[in-house]
TrEMBL record:
One of its GO terms (molecular function) is sequence-specific DNA binding. Keywords: DNA-binding, Transcription, Transcription regulation. Residues 5-66 form the HTH asnC-type domain. InterPro entries: ArsR-like_HTH (IPR011991), AsnC-type_HTH_dom (IPR000485), Dimeric_a/b-barrel (IPR011008), Tscrpt_reg_AsnC-like (IPR019888), Tscrpt_reg_AsnC/Lrp_C (IPR019887), Tscrpt_reg_HTH_AsnC-type_CS (IPR019885), WH-like_DNA-bd_sf (IPR036388), WH_DNA-bd_sf (IPR036390). It comes from the Bacteria. The keyword Disulfide bond does not apply. GO terms for biological process: regulation of DNA-templated transcription; response to amino acid. Pfam families: AsnC_trans_reg, HTH_24. This is Lrp/AsnC family transcriptional regulator. One of its GO terms (cellular component) is cytosol.
Amino acid sequence: MTVRIDDLDRKILVQLQRDGGQSLDEIAKIVGSSKTPVWNRIRKMRDAGIIKQQTFLLDAETLGFEACFFVLIRTSEHDADWQAKFLKALLDRDEVQEAHRLAGDIDYILKVRVANARAYDSFYQALISEVKVHNVTALLSMEEIKSTTHLPL
C-alpha cells in the first residue's frame, strides 16, 4: 500500500533523514512551516508507517568495529524449519547489520560488522554450529566508499 505524501512531507522527511536530532523549530524553519503543522505531519507519517523509528548512527570504526564483511551464503536447505533456525541465528547476532535473501546463485548476503578477522571467525563458527549451510564466502570490505540510509525523495 502506497501512502500519499506531498511536497512539504517530503521536505520534512529529507530533514529527518539528514539529522533526526534537529528540533521541530529548526525543521519548521528550513521547510518553511511552523512547529505545530510539522509535528502533526511527523506524527501522521509515523502512524502511517512511513517513519519507522528514530535512531542515531554510530561510527563503527571509532567504537572498535573496524572490519566489515559481506558474507555470501549458499544452502541446500530451503524448508520452513531451516529458514526459521537461520532467521533466529541472524536475529540473535548483533554483528549482522543487514541480511537479504537473494535471487540467483547466492541464497543470502549478510553485512557483518566486527572488530577484526578473529571476531569474524568466532561469528562464523557460531553460525555454522547452529545452521547447516552448503557454502560460505566472506568478502572483507577494504574501504567504505558510500553508505547512507537516505531515500531519494
